[in-house]
From TrEMBL:
CDD domains assigned: AdoMet_MTases
The protein, known as: S-adenosyl-L-methionine-dependent methyltransferase
PANTHER family to which the protein is assigned, alphabetical: 2-METHOXY-6-POLYPRENYL-1,4-BENZOQUINOL METHYLASE, MITOCHONDRIAL (PTHR43591:SF24), METHYLTRANSFERASE (PTHR43591)
Listed InterPro entries: Methyltransf_25, SAM-dependent_MTases_sf
Amino acid sequence: MGNQTSRVLERTKEKRGSKTRRRSTATVGARSHSSLSISHASSSYSHGNYDWVEPFPSNGAGAIDNAMAAAASAVVSTTPTTTMTTHTTTTSSTTTTKSDYSSSTLAAPSINTSTASSTMTPQKAMDGPRRKSISEVLHSKQRKASFSRPTATAQEDFREYDRLQRQHYLLKSARKTNAWAPIEKPTTIVDIGTANGIWALEMAAEHFNAQVIGIDIKPPMSHQVGPKNLSYVEADINDRLPLEDASVDFIFQRSMGNVIRKDKWSHVLQEMLRVLKPGGYIELVEADLWHHNPGPVQNAFDAFMQEQCTEWGLDFVFTESLGSKIEETGFENMEHRPLDIPIGEWPKDAELKQFGFINKETRKLYLRNRKTFFMGNWGISSEDYDMAVQEVLEEFEDYHGFTRFNCWIARKP
């Protein structure tokens, strides 16, 4: 794979040498290059479905800014002396519980109601000039309130934290909500693969009468400000969920396709069915692991990731069969909603252009955060990798690239 990438980069260098200004060297004809093709991809141009923008005329081009402001307001409401209707929420620290499979499973992890006073340290600045990160914007608005952050202090972890923040608000503003499932007055909500915990935190603020549990193999820090109805459990999704049978009203999962092994998907869905109450819902939000309308350099990245998925036991095209697996598990009333979001500012529509800008930023952060990984596997220099990333970013604009986020909603009978 590294040799293929090197050939692509060498051709790019040669073409750049004959140009007086920097621009993408990708051409439409290069898309069919056999050495860069991946098994599932089509050489034809793919048209994204952007009808999801139309039914919401009240949303202007500032949808993402509005979502950020609303989220910041929701989190601020969890600080001391703030009243939400007739319910007063006091500051408390969330609890991180490590699951012990030799003991009994959890009905609902206990909540530590002791006061915490820690605040989030703003993300370290990335090299070179850049826009303020979403986490920094929220930090300036929230002041004493803070979101969870990675347990490690390495700069790469802070950057990944920022990327997850951006992706969360991108999806929230595009979906106009944190959840599409028709949940009413839930008592227990579970967030599988909670990562930095932002979705769970916002749901805890929204559903303050429900217990919200974030599950992750590396949950957020326990000493942080947050709603008293929010807790975290350390567990591996590939194992048994540390929850009792029929104890959960709603299960949410997002971006776990690069974590759940191919031979574990049926087990994961069976576990969801087990812990759900009758009539409870699951909502899975998963993006295709490949990019739609890739240029030659992005195609090389995708081909490499397909090889890595095979090596790691992951299913590169799991989104093509996940719906069938959900139904085979025993869920009913399954609904699949694809959500195509452009990568870049190539759309003419103002709102899509803004979504595309944020989506492109998340892709740029992803590639920068994994620079060491790709350089080591491809055997290329730092300069060549940086050039490849720049080419990919320009290809998104030239090829009209987009990400397809799939959402499955299903009910337990």
